[in-house]
Amino acid sequence: MQLARVVGTVVATRKEPNLLGLKLLVVRPIDEEGRDAGNVIVSADAVGAGPDEIVLIAAGSSARQTTATDKKPVDSVVMAIVDSWDVGDKQKYKK
């Protein structure tokens, strides 16, 4: 799993039929301090995430193990919206 921030959406009017009805989000991985930590990724949205939200994503075969993405051709999925996280005894993020 990886922390990421939702930075945009993807609209694709023509796509694989298995992807119909699946919202696609552009997310950017972040580090434990909330700083950008990588290139953007397109992730299928399994939880109804929105712009600027901090989310947890899973990639690879794990991305196909949510109800929304089961047996679908996805390599990344947003599987949780983050409420907060702590590192050691310090709270690093709170929604």
Task: Furnish the topology, listing elements before pairings.
Layout (H helix, E strand, L loop, with lengths): L1 E9 L13 E6 L11 E5 L8 E6 L16 E6 L2 E4 L2 E5 L1
Could you explain the architecture of this structure?
With 95 residues, the chain is mainly β. It has a single domain, classed as Beta Barrel (OB fold (Dihydrolipoamide Acetyltransferase, E2P)). The protein has no helices and seven strands. It has a five-stranded mixed barrel with strand order 1-2-3-5-4. It is elongated, with a radius of gyration of 14 Å. The mean pLDDT is 95.
Compute the CA-based radius of gyration.
14 Å
Mean pLDDT: 95
* Helix content range: under 10%
Q: Treating each run of at least 4 consecutive H or I residues as one helix, how many helices?
A: 0
The CATH homologous superfamily corresponds to EutN/Ccml
Name of the CATH architecture: Beta Barrel
End-to-end CA span: 19 Å
Report the major sheet: 5 strands, mixed, barrel
In order across it, which strands form the biggest sheet? 1-2-3-5-4
In the CATH scheme, the class would be: Mainly Beta
Structural class: mainly beta
Task: Label the overall shape.
Answer: elongated
Which consecutive residue ranges, at least 5 long each, have pLDDT under 50?
none
Features of the shown structure:
95 residues, mainly beta, OB fold (Dihydrolipoamide Acetyltransferase, E2P), five-stranded mixed beta barrel, 0% helix
